[in-house]
Every structure is written in structure tokens, then in C-alpha cells.
Amino acid sequence: MGKKRQWAVKPLVPEEVYTDRQEYLDYFHQAVLEEEPRIDLAHIQEKLWQQEGEHVEMETIKDVLVKLSRGDLIDYKPFGGWFNKINDPILEAFLKVWGRIEVVGENRASVIDDTRK
């Protein structure tokens, strides 16, 4: 039988948002880099193809973004089926820096130096 988790403080974010799966991080990083508030799934698909050389189905990208929206990292409009970035400039700046270090693999010190400029 599975061991039941003992929480000191139980998180409100659904379990599926917590992940170490690289493709989730890649999709999320691409969504953060979008210039417009509305996230373009086709653009994410294209960027993933260019960077990873792998075709990812739109439905897969959408499923990942829906899961990320459950953690309030992006905004999902289920009636229209589209996504927006969260209107939080501090979160957006943090996620861009985080993505450069954790997803792209840039040197932490150089990213920090670039950010301070």
C-alpha cells in the first residue's frame, strides 16, 4: 500500500502542477516569453520544434497549460479555450530569469549580472 503523505502545511496547488518533467518546463518557459498577453499555442509549438527538434501536438501543449493554470501560473479561459499570462510584472520577470537558468541552462552568475543591468 502507498504511504499517505504527512503535511505540515498542505499546498493548495494540485499535485499535477509539481513536476520535474522537462517538457512541462519547456512549454511554460515558452509561454512566459510570449510578447502578447494572450498565449499563442502555435508559436509555442513552433519554438519547441526549432529548439528541441520535436513535434508536439497542440492538445499536449494545451493539456500542460491547463495544468499550469490550476497553479495560477497562467490564466485559462475555458469557454474560449485560450490562455493569458498572469498580469503580474514581478512574477513575469522572475519566470524569465528562472527559465534562463533552469530551462535554457545559462550560467546563473551571468544571468544575475544581466538582470542587474
Question: What topology emerges from the helices and strands here?
Answer:
Elements: H1 22-33, E1 38-39, H2 41-52, H3 58-70, E2 74-77, E3 82-85, H4 89-104, H5 108-116
Antiparallel strand pairs: 1-3, 2-3
Helix pairs in contact: 1-2, 1-4
Describe this protein's structure.
This protein is mainly α. A three-stranded antiparallel β-sheet has the order 1-3-2. Helix 1 (22-33) packs across helix 2 (41-52) and helix 1 (22-33) crosses helix 4 (89-104). It is built from five helices and three strands, in the order αβααββαα. It has helices at residues 22-33, 41-52, 58-70, 89-104, 108-116, and strands at 38-39, 74-77, 82-85. The chain has one domain.
- Low-pLDDT segments: none
The biggest beta sheet is recorded as: 3 strands, antiparallel
Number of domains: 1
Order of strands in the sheet with most strands: 1-3-2
Q: Return Rg in Å.
A: 16 Å
Kindly estimate the percentage of residues that lie in beta strands according to DSSP. Answer: 5-15%
Number of helices: 5
